[in-house]
Design a protein that fits this description.
The protein has 249 residues and is an alpha/beta fold. It has nine helices and nine strands. The protein folds into two domains: 4-76 and 158-248, Rossmann fold (3-Layer(aba) Sandwich), CATH 3.40.50.300; 88-155, no CATH class. It binds adenosine-5'-triphosphate and magnesium ion.
């Protein structure tokens, strides 16, 4: 069994007086792509936010990072949220948004030539046109924004990448390139990926492990071959999934 990058024991999250995650136990394998699947409202986003330390929780979320697995925190966590938690009307261009993350000196002193080159490289790495740089973030499309956010999340290269339905607005043609970017980060740079997705064909093709969340607890954990079966999917989603299983078996 692969060593875990994250081990979670007894994770309980209560929001607005409601139990969202209930005594949840899970491990996220180091250097693998783990897909988190489950119905709307099952707690997937809340789980990622707990891993990020963004919601109060009881229980234990333990990291085993660094070469010798002894570091209690990842060097850097990349995160592409399901919803952007900033004012979408913020009058900021893609260039400034990226430069704020990349450049060490304040961007009101100007964006250096080396930062400019890095910004171009970031957009190219996520197959986004560099013409986006001058566009205000409120004027770019949902799919373009998701690519920019992925570019932001992988700069610098993270040890852990949390992706909450990152390709939800990406068109069919571009989504494969988007997924390949994630796979490349994992395979070539050893980035541990935790990916929330409703796209079971993406999960079946790219995930090494699958976690099913149901009502705030992990109902099953295994390889896509073990989990993406008629029986397990029907139990998780409460509907007949035989068409999907048939197409992908
Ligand atoms: N801040 C909050 N206060 C109260 N309830 C919340 C809060 N955030 C989330 N919830 C509730 O917690 C449950 C789980 O939400 P969460 O966003 O984690 O689900 P999800 O699995 O990501 O769903 P989806 O597939 O729709 O994105 C939902 O019922 C949601 O309404
Ligand atoms: Mg969600």
């Amino acid at each position: 069994m692969t060593a875990p990058l994250i081990s979670v024991r007894g994770l309980t999250v209560e929001l607005g007086g409601q139990l969202i995650l209930r005594d949840l136990h899970a491990t996220i394998a180091r250097g693998k792509i783990t897909a988190l699947i489950g119905k709307n409202g099952s707690g997937k986003t809340t789980f990622l936010r707990a891993v990020l330390g963004e919601v109060p929780y009881r229980g234990e979320i333990k990291f085993h990072c660094g070469h010798d697995h002894s570091q209690p925190q990842p060097r850097h966590i990349g995160y592409v949220p399901q919803k952007l938690n900033i004012d979408a009307k913020l009058p900021i261009t893609v260039r400034d948004l990226l430069a704020l993350a990349v450049q060490r000196r304040p961007i009101f002193l100007g964006i250096s030539r080396s930062t400019q080159a890095t910004l171009v490289a970031i957009l190219e790495s996520v197959n986004a046109p560099t013409s986006l740089l001058d566009r205000p973030i409120e004027k770019i499309s949902g799919g373009e924004l998701q690519r920019v956010l992925l570019g932001l999340a992988i700069q610098p290269c993270p040890e852990l990448l949390l992706l909450d339905e990152p390709a939800a607005s990406i068109d069919f043609q571009s989504s494969e390139a988007f997924n390949q970017t994630i796979v490349r980060l994992n395979r070539e740079h050893g980035v541990t990926v935790l990916l929330v997705s409703h796209d079971l064909s993406v999960v079946s093709r790219h995930a090494d492990e699958v976690l099913c969340l149901e009502g705030g607890v992990i109902k099953c954990h295994g390889s896509p071959r073990e989990i993406l079966t008629h029986e397990t999917l029907s139990q998780t989603f409460g509907t007949d999934m035989s068409v999907f299983v048939h197409q992908h078996s």
